[in-house]
Sequence to fold (139 residues):
Amino acid sequence: MSTIAPVAPLTADDAETLVRAARHAADAAGVPVSITVLDAGGNLLAFRRDERAVLISGETSTAKARTALQLNAATADLVDLVKPDGPFHSLPTALGRPLLFIAGGIPVHRDGQLIGALGLGGGAPEQDHSFARTALQAL
Fold:
């Protein structure tokens, strides 16, 4: 019989580490952003919105994190799937809580298991993705 060892969940301390690292990366680039960290159940662990970030960035950072969590994939890798001829074309509006297929959301794994997600909004999609990837390295 094979036993899978339990993996430590994403903690509040982990979430703060991600927020600090993402904020540092965005600040270094001079880009005001919002940052959302969700645990594996989709619960909010941390949120930070730079006071200079556009208001909608709070919503987009959360939707990107939710999308990365639900599909266990970086949102940057999913963009083509929702184009009119893509297999997920209707998925963004098919659920009660919309998904967002714009770069900036990434799943968080520990020992190969999904433990949460990080989403950034406020910069260009490529910037948000880069800041998220940089933050993930801090864990």
User: Anything to note?
Assistant: The helical segments are 12-29, 56-71, 125-137. The chain has a mean pLDDT of 92.
